[in-house]
Design a protein that fits this description.
The protein is 56% helix and 7% strand. It contains 12 helices and 4 strands; from the N terminus they run αααααααββββααααα.
């Protein structure tokens, strides 16, 4: 994607030279990785190490379900004190982030897909729209990071549950208009200042939310959006031993990638 800008111009290489070097380096790296595999260990600061108590649970998804139960109780409590400005902001953020986490448990997409998701039907982009009282997520093949894999359909669509749709409705009716302050936005998720959230800012919001409502005896602090993929996959595999192909479908990733992680 950045070959012209970085390699061709900076290093004075042609595209053919870049391709040949890539093939050569890939072969060398493949040979080295086999020799070094037994020496490679996860970094103690990696998310997999820091979050391992979650995936070691009998049902890893229970960590998130308990979190959602706590956030929904807070939302009900906030509604009785919503006239206070500080309470109101917390209330609105809790509704938005609860809706997002519920979406992540049904469709554990990467952060960029959620950040770029548009509201309403947009066939050429990630989008979310309402159909028969439930929301549908639609994503064209080219919007996926691993779009070249066969498991990715030309257009991915999935209808969200009634419960998740209910919280999306709550976010869209009570929160998003307040955040936008009379302005408009094409994007589904916006910040409390009415701006589009990018992958980094969206990830930060979810880390704050999960730190606030997550069981700190299981995991200190919060978790990032990408780790929801691990939670969904591990939960399914603990219940359905060896079902790597189905988990690959859930994550829209290759079976080889699922087995390796």
């Amino acid at each position: 994607e950045y070959a012209d800008e970085i390699f061709c111009e900076r290093y004075n290489l042609t595209k053919e030279e870049i391709f040949n070097l890539s093939c050569k380096n890939y072969e060398e790296l493949s040979k080295l990785s086999k020799d070094l595999k037994s020496y490679v260990k996860p970094c103690e600061q990696s998310s997999k190490v820091n979050n391992r108590k979650i995936t070691q649970l009998d049902v890893p998804a229970s960590y998130v379900l308990d979190m959602l139960t706590a956030s929904k109780k807070d939302i009900q409590m906030y509604q009785t004190h919503s006239n206070l400005e500080t309470i109101r902001v917390s209330h609105l953020n809790a509704i938005r982030d609860t809706a997002i986490v519920m979406c992540l448990m049904e469709i554990p997409l990467r952060a960029r897909n959620w950040a770029d998701m548009m509201l309403g039907y947009h066939p050429s982009n990630e989008c979310i729209y309402k159909e028969d009282d439930r929301y549908v997520v639609s994503i064209p093949k080219h919007s996926f990071k691993n779009f070249h894999q066969k498991i990715i359909p030309e257009t991915f669509t999935r209808k969200l549950s009634e419960e998740t749709s209910k919280y999306i409705d709550l976010y869209l009716s009570e929160v998003r208009p307040v955040f936008l302050r009379g302005h408009s936005s094409d994007f589904f998720i916006v910040s409390s200042h009415g701006n589009k959230l990018n992958s980094t800012t969206l990830g930060h919001s979810i880390r704050l939310f999960t730190a606030r409502y997550g069981n700190q005896n299981v995991k200190t602090g919060g978790i990032g959006i990408h780790y929801f993929r691990d939670i969904v996959a591990t939960t399914f595999l603990k219940k359905n031993k060896g079902a790597f192909a189905y988990v690959a479908y859930l994550l829209l990733d290759s079976e080889k990638m699922v087995r390796e992680h």
